[in-house]
Amino acid sequence: MPDVTVADLVTGWGLDAAALATVMIVAWAYGRGVRRLALRGRRWPVGRSAAMAGALVAAVLATQSGVGRYEGEAFWVHMVQHVLLGMVVPLLVVLAAPLTLALQTARPATRRGLRRALHSRAGHVVGHPLVGWTLFGGGLVVLYLTPLLDVAARHPLVHLAVHAHVVTAGLLLLVPLVGIDPLPGRLPFAARLGALLAAIPFHAVVALAMTASASPIDPRTYPSIDDQRVAAGLFWGAGEIFTVIAAAIVMRQWWVTEQRAMARDDRRADAAAAAAPEVAV
User: Fold this and answer.
1) Which one of 53, 152, 157, 162 has the minimum C-beta count within 10 Å?
2) Which helix (H) or strand (E) holds 264?
3) Is 3 helix (H, G, I), strand (E, B) or coil?
């Protein structure tokens, strides 16, 4: 196995200018929206800001720390980067509700454009869970069970495109299932939970294929079969944990929604009882 240690990941920082610029732009835009709300006397939930901060930190770790520096030298490090970019960052971003923030703080023309995009035919298609599910799962299969991984390792633009796909596919999977932004045609909670659980086999199938392979899937970049098996185990375990956490979030959202509905029904019943004329005994 390549001699890359956890200490290397902690100390081996470098600069990925494109990734860092993206992180800074997102941080600036989100922070600007929060400040605009504050100037209007409205408070943006701290938990959502914390989620976005966590997503940005995860993106920095994946691209600027030793994870980004050594991901081309050890398959298990590459897999740590994939987990950060494809699972951690998308999950935290959707919990940060950036669309809701934009709809509350953007200029009127921008808000109208966002609403039109969300309710357009293209918006319905892109926001459909099947699209995210297909891109997320299909992307895993194509990346790890075809020569794409080797191509990406040798061509920087392809490598960048793979990173962009990993993040985008994670977002498209999670926005309609876990996200709290307003989307048209949201699935019932039971269907969202089912769609999440249906994504589990992708991690298992890819991990099993890498574990069972008698030779490295990318022998030029990652020649160690032991390294590959460690990466497969890490990927499988992270995928299971990711799914459980996302499912738990959906379950909590479901419970909160039911509690609010019950509270509304109780208030209506109390108001109807108070408005009803008293019957003389």
Assistant:
1) 157
2) helix 225-275
3) coil
What does pTM read for this prediction? Answer: 0.90
Length of the chain as a residue count:
281
- Is position 153 within any domain? yes
Asked, for residue 187, whether it belongs to a domain, the answer is yes
Distance from C-alpha of 73 to C-alpha of 20, rounded to nearest angstrom: 21
- Residues in Cβ contact with 239 at an 8 Å cutoff, skipping those fewer than 6 apart: 87, 200, 202, 203, 204, 207
Query: C-alpha angle 118/119/124, rounded to 5°?
Result: 80
Q: Does the residue 16 lie in any domain? A: yes
- Report d(CA 74, CA 3) in Å as an integer: 8
Rounded Cα distance between 195 and 173, Å, is 9
DSSP state of 178: T
Q: Kindly state whether residue 276 falls inside one of the protein's structural domains.
A: no
DSSP 41: T
* Structural domain boundaries, residue 193: 6-106+123-265
Q: How many folded domains does the chain comprise?
A: 1
Tell me which long-range contacts 129-134 makes (C-beta under 8 A, separation of at least 24): 129/173, 129/176, 129/177, 129/187, 129/191, 129/192, 129/195, 131/172, 132/169, 132/171, 132/172, 132/173, 132/174, 132/175, 132/176, 132/177, 133/173, 133/195, 133/198, 133/199
One digit per residue, the tens of pLDDT, for the chain of length 281 reads 457 888 999 999 999 999 999 999 999 999 999 999 999 989 999 999 999 999 999 999 999 999 999 999 999 999 999 999 999 999 999 999 999 999 999 888 888 898 888 888 888 888 888 899 899 999 999 999 999 999 999 999 999 999 999 999 999 999 999 988 888 778 889 989 988 888 878 888 999 999 999 899 999 999 999 999 999 999 999 999 999 999 999 999 999 988 988 888 777 877 777 776 655 54
